[in-house]
Amino acid sequence: MTKTKLVLGVTTTLLAFAAATVAPEAAAHAGKKAHKHAKKAATYQTTETHSSSFSHSSSNAKVDALESQLQSMQAEIRSLRAASGHHQVDPDTAKVQELDQWMQSTKEHKEHHKGGKDNMVFFRGGYDFGNDSRGDGIDILAGAGGTGAVNSDAWYFGAGFDWSINDNLFGMMQGTEVLAELMFDYKEFSDKATSTLTKAGVTVNQLTLAASPKIKFLKGSAFRPWLIPAGFEISVISPPSGAVTVLNPGIMFGAGADYKIWKDIYVGADARYHYSADNIDGVNTDGVTAGGYLGLGF
Known about the structure:
By secondary structure, the chain is of the alpha+beta class. It has 3 domains: 1-88; 90-116; 119-297, Porin (Beta Barrel), CATH 2.40.160.20. It has 3 helices and 10 strands. The chain has helices at residues 2-84, 91-112, 139-142, and strands at 120-130, 153-166, 177-189, 193-195, 200-202, 205-216, 223-238, 247-262, 265-275, 287-297. Strand 4 and strand 5 form a beta hairpin. The termini are far apart.
């Protein structure tokens, strides 16, 4: 009994000593293991934090780089526009603008010529100042004491037409109209030739037909000057010449102007010089006519 108690006591003492010896080492090992796990967790957290921070910094850097490139491109575009002097226009927008300009131009053209007519009929009258006296007529006027010489001055009246051919002098001058004029004049001289054979007076007169180009300026305005550079005319004299000739061809030059007084009603004045290369057997038809006219547009 005493030995058994002794053995049990020794055993208990040894177990207690062993437990006391092992417990600090286990605690230390457990502490080391916990510290290692904590350190690893902290390292992972730090790495994750750094990775997130790096990723965010990298994204910001890319945005900054793209923004910088965009600003550089915008600056280059502005520089090119300034150098070329105009902005790039979309093709569809350009077509619309061109169509709008054409419509506006057509509208202005219609407004410019609204209420105006290109053609005209006119009625004219005035005086003829011949270069020489009318000259001798047939023998019945000049012979047997007849007065063959007639006053060189005459009065006239006539009419004519203007037809518009072109609005811009065939592309050479805007607002300058080219017309064709067809006109006739009747002239009657102030004195009458008489014959002692017939004891009767004979009216001395002349009919002139003319066709001429006319250049008229300031199309669309109320006041419009014009000129005739050269036109063809033919004069029919009565009585006939001593050789019984009645026709005398020649050239006409003229200038004048008209003014629109109301709607398509015009008043004007002109002067024309009539020239023929030769007289008709002593009858001279050269001279100047000057007078006024009333025109109606159509």
